Write a sequence for this structure.
């Protein structure tokens, strides 16, 4: 599927190199990628192939050395740090392999952080948090801290938090990497479900064949290049 | 080895901080005892020097009845004196001999009254034979040296040129001197001389031989003169004044430079023993006595030294404890930074003792470097033998890192909170019980130490303060810190409730992290060092203000002129001062200590202050003692009084009708008010203020009435006089004007500014104030270091948290505010709490630390809190802002995408 400039995500000839000289690591070497609105794309590849770097560049966590990245029509690379922060706050959400929860906050508070960053009204925030807790099945655990939750529960909190700000793009980096297969399956199903339910676009880096199967499309990344569609199912 | 160096290099800055802290504390704790010892020696010598010649050891005895032989030759006289002097010198304790100079011996008659053409109203004559290894060298201006009595039997005597001029006598003149029992002693002047060296110490025994001395009130002065006997004429004088008319005295001058603090205790004891048992000196003759103020002067000086030692011990103990806590915080940080590596080496099979040994070796090197630098610094500041109190700090520095490293390595990664609620609660309860037990023990210990310190006082004249007592302020600070630490969750809980209701993310993140990441060790350390800053600052402020108050208390004005005996001429001095430029107010009066006051409770010894109430009140109004309406009341009452003498009295005497004994009369007083705040009311005891003119009138009336009753004639000498003995003046030029005017009355001038300068330059007081300032500065620096170390310890968690927040959309510039919000609450609570604890402690410690010995006041000084005792709060606040700014700068370079990756 090729969506062109009107795509939710439009990546063109993106290069990213870490370090310099002989020890330089070329993480991305001219990547082109378009993701259509509402599409769930799986990035497949070995460790070090450049999946995470591509996600970071798309999500505004990193800047490409060359090339352009448009997210919802906005040139991410051209934004200042603060503008990138606002982009992440308003349009992009992340789910990490390590969950990225704040250990000092309860599950409900973690979920509410994106809305707090937008300074949403308290009542609206609380209502949305309740709804998301119910969506991910963690209402009984709302007041527990992350270290009191299992890995699967933590990842569900992370997903709920990602949804809290009603983002246009969900960026997930190995979301099931630290989960057992059963929990991982549940989490993947949840992501698939909320992407469809919320109508958002998702870009997921994964090794998991089940996740790849659940994706609309899978793209293989090899040595910083997209080498075509990955085999699914 | 290479791995150890790599590890050290990776943690260079915390190790450098350890080196710095150890070096500073070792330097101070090593140098200060030597500086104090030097100061103690200087203080003892200064005290002895200031008290000279009163500290001279004076051995005296009478010749006794029947011991005189007018035919004894001069050689025998000299040999007799010389033998006696040698005998006393030999009999003196060995440790006393190096301190005492060669004696000056004199044999002097009792007071003989006489009159001459030059002194028709009469005077007092002393006939003295002087000897200091030899007789004093003189030049004969007329006549010759005295010899044996001639056929007239007169005692032959020589006069100095000045005395001869005053008496209007010369060689060949005779005079009849009278003893107290009216026995006539004929005296023949054989020669007039001039001292070859008037500064020869031999003359110090009887300076009246060279210069007449006038004593007594100006309207009835008495001239005291001395005449010089020779070895040939002394036997005749002794014979003429049989049985006890001649006293021989051996005055041993004290060499202040030979006295030091260490030997001063034994010296005081030996002098006191000699005073109690003068026969030990083997001085011949009856009525032997030994007098000297050396023992008293040394005892007082030693008390001041002991007080300073104790005060310094308390301060240094605080510094050592504070340093120990900083080193613990540093060791904790090192262990946290190395936790991953430590667990890894442990997982690979390293033994805990092996890990501890490695950390101890590194710590020993680091502490060794710091101690070496500190000792070198200490030797530069105060060369001398190394003192060892700093070893305690070094031990903490060496032991703490391996302890923390071992504990960290022993922990497993599986320290997750049990998911089972029951287990969680049980573990929580065990931790609570353990913590409460430790806190309760510390509280009890601190309370006991403080009570003991307040009851016993830190000052002991037998030695430095107990170390346990010296640690009392730190124990109280630590106990207070734990109580404060208990309050922090309550405060943060309230803040968290507010933050949860907020729409913003920043406050919630900051407060939640503040509540979760605060650590008790840096908190306690910060409270302790800020307490020490405030305590030292407040003690220094109190001492300095107390010195200024002490100056006002001692002088009572900008300058005071006092005469040893009342002198009506002081009124002229006061008038001259009052008309001088630069003098704002002047008062003249009579200060009479130990006067008897009779009231219903019995007899009290009081100080009588007889002044013109109006002028004295105006003078006091220009001093810190301020305006008091009591003087106006006294003035008005005195102007109209016809009965009892109006007086301002101490509060308990209000409503009574006391009587005052003044010379030979008893005056009924009418209390008209309470004595206001006055200078130097202690230790003179209670003061009674009266109008001097009214007092004089009352005395005159009473004497006249008595004369009338007894039908006797009023004799001038029988009327108690009310002449002034003191003039006070205030104004910028008052000291200089008073110094110029005081010569007329031979008054002693004491300027407040000079008193203050002298007091502040005193080696003990000045040294202690410098030490307080130094320790305050060091502890302020340590407070900053603790903040930096504590922030560094929590930095990784904060970085991750803020990176997560930034991924979610928190702007970079907002992260600084969130970080500051995380760090500031507990740090500010600790700093403010520490400062408050220091302020409270200083009130409790002023008396036990005997600060009055530093200020020179008769009572404990009032606590003064200089504004800069709150400086630590600003300092640690600023340190937090610097830390979060630096962290923010580092975060800007951080690649967000890497932060949350699996490592």
């Amino acid at each position: 599927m090729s969506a062109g400039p009107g795509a939710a995500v439009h990546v063109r000839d993106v290069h990213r190199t870490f370090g310099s000289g002989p020890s330089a690591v070329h993480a991305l070497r001219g990547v082109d990628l378009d993701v259509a609105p509402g599409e769930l794309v799986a990035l497949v590849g070995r460790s070090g192939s450049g999946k995470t770097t591509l996600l970071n560049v798309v999500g505004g966590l990193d800047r490409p050395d060359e090339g352009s990245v448009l997210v919802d029509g906005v040139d991410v690379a051209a934004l200042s740090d603060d503008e990138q922060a606002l982009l992440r706050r308003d349009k992009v959400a992340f789910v990490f392999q390590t969950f990225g929860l704040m250990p000092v906050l309860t599950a409900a508070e973690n979920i509410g952080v994106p809305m707090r960053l937008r300074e949403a009204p308290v009542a609206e925030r609380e209502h949305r948090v309740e709804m998301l807790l119910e969506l991910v099945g963690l209402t009984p655990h709302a007041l527990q801290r992350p270290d009191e939750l299992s890995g699967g529960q933590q990842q569900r909190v992370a997903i709920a938090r990602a949804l809290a700000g009603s983002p246009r793009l969900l960026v997930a980096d190995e979301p099931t990497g630290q989960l057992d297969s059963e929990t991982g399956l549940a989490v993947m199903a949840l992501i698939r479900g909320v992407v469809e339910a919320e109508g958002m676009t998702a870009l997921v880096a994964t090794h998991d064949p089940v996740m790849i199967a659940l994706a609309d499309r899978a793209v293989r990344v090899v040595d910083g290049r997209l080498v075509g569609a990955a085999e699914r199912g | 080895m290479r791995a150890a160096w790599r590890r050290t290099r990776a943690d260079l800055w915390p190790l450098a901080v350890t080196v710095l802290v150890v070096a500073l504390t070792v330097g101070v704790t090593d140098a200060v005892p030597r500086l104090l010892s030097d100061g103690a020696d200087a203080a003892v010598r200064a005290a002895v020097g200031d008290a000279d010649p009163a500290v001279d050891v004076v051995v005296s005895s009478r010749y006794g009845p029947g011991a005189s032989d007018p035919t004894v030759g001069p050689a025998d006289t000299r040999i007799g004196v010389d033998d006696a002097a040698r005998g006393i010198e030999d009999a003196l304790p060995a440790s006393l001999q190096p301190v005492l100079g060669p004696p000056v011996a004199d044999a002097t008659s009792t007071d003989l009254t006489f009159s001459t053409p030059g002194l028709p109203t009469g005077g007092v004559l002393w006939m003295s034979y002087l000897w200091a290894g030899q007789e004093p060298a003189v030049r004969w201006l007329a006549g010759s040296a005295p010899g044996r009595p001639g056929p007239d039997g007169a005692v032959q005597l020589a006069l100095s040129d000045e005395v001869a001029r005053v008496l209007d006598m010369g060689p060949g003149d005779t005079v009849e001197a009278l003893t107290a029992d009216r026995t006539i002693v004929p005296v023949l002047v054989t020669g007039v001389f001039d001292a070859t060296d008037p500064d020869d110490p031999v003359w110090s025994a009887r300076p009246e031989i060279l210069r007449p001395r006038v004593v007594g009130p100006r309207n009835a002065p008495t001239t005291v003169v001395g005449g010089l006997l020779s070895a040939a004429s002394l036997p005749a004088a002794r014979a003429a004044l049989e049985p006890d008319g001649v006293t021989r005295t051996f005055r041993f001058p004290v060499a202040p430079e030979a006295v030091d603090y260490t030997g001063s205790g034994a010296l005081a004891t030996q002098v006191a023993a000699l005073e109690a048992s003068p026969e030990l000196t083997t001085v011949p003759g009856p009525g032997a006595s030994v007098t000297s103020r050396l023992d008293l002067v040394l005892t007082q000086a030693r008390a001041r030294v002991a007080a300073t030692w104790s005060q310094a011990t308390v301060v240094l103990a605080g510094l050592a404890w504070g340093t120990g806590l900083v080193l613990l915080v540093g060791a904790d940080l090192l262990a946290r930074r190395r936790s991953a590596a430590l667990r890894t080496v442990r997982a690979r099979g390293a033994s805990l003792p092996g890990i501890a040994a490695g950390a101890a070796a590194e710590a020993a090197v680091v502490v060794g470097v710091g101690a070496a630098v500190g000792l070198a610094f200490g030797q530069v500041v105060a060369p001398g033998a190394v003192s060892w109190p700093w070893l305690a700090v070094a031990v903490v520095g060496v032991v703490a890192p391996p302890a923390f490293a071992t504990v960290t390595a022993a922990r497993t990664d599986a320290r997750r909170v049990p998911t089972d609620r029951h287990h969680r609660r049980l573990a929580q309860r065990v931790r609570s019980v353990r913590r409460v037990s430790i806190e309760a023990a510390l509280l009890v210990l601190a309370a006991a130490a403080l009570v003991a310190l307040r009851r016993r006082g830190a000052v002991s004249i037998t030695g430095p303060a107990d170390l346990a007592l010296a640690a009392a302020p730190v124990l109280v600070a630590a106990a207070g810190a734990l109580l404060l630490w208990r309050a922090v969750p309550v405060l943060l809980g309230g803040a968290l409730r507010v933050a949860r209701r907020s729409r913003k993310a920043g406050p919630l993140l900051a407060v939640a992290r503040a509540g979760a990441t605060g650590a008790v060790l840096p908190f306690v350390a910060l409270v302790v060092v800020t307490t020490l800053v405030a305590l030292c600052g407040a003690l220094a402020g109190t001492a300095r203000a107390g010195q200024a108050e002490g100056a006002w208390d001692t002088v009572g004005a900008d300058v005071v002129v006092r005469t040893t005996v009342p002198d009506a001429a002081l009124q002229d001095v006061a008038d001259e001062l009052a008309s001088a430029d630069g003098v704002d107010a002047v008062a003249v009066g009579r200060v009479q200590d130990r006067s008897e006051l009779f009231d219903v409770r019995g007899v009290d010894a009081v100080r009588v202050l007889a002044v013109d109430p109006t002028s004295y009140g105006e003078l006091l109004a220009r001093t810190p003692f301020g305006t008091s309406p009591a003087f106006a009341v006294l003035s008005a009452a005195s102007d109209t009084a016809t009965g009892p003498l109006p007086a301002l009295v101490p509060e308990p005497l209000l409503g009574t009708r006391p009587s005052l004994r003044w010379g030979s009369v008893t005056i009924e007083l009418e209390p008209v008010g309470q004595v206001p705040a006055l200078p130097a009311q202690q230790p003179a005891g209670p003061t009674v203020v009266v109008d001097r003119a009214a007092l004089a009138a009352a005395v005159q009336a009473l004497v006249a009435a008595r004369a009338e009753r007894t039908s006797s004639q009023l004799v001038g000498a029988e009327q108690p006089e009310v002449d002034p003995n003191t003039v006070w003046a205030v104004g910028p030029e008052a000291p200089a004007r008073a110094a110029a005017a005081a010569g007329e009355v031979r008054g002693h001038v004491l300027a407040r500014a000079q008193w203050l300068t002298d007091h502040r330059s005193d080696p003990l007081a000045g040294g202690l104030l410098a030490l307080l300032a130094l320790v305050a500065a060091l502890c302020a620096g340590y407070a900053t270091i603790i903040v930096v170390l504590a922030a560094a310890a929590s930095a990784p968690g904060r970085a991750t948290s803020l990176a997560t927040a930034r991924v979610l959309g928190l702007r970079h510039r907002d992260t600084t505010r969130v970080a500051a919000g995380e760090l500031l609450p507990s740090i500010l609570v600790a700093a403010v709490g520490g400062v408050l604890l220091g302020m409270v402690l200083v009130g409790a410690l002023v008396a036990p630390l005997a600060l009055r010995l530093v200020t020179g006041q008769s009572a404990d000084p009032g606590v003064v809190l200089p504004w800069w005792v709150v400086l630590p709060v600003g300092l640690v606040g600023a340190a937090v802002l610097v830390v979060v700014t630096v962290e923010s700068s580092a975060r800007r370079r951080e690649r967000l995408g890497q932060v949350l990756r699996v490592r």
Summary: The interface with chain B takes residues 52-53, 55-56, 59, 61-62, 81-82, 85-86, 88-90, 94, 96-98, 100-105, 109, 113-114, 116-122, 125, 147-148, 150, 161, 165, 173-174, 177-178 of chain A (CB under 8 Å). The CA atoms of residues 220 and 226 of chain A lie 6 Å apart. The mean pLDDT of chain A is 87.
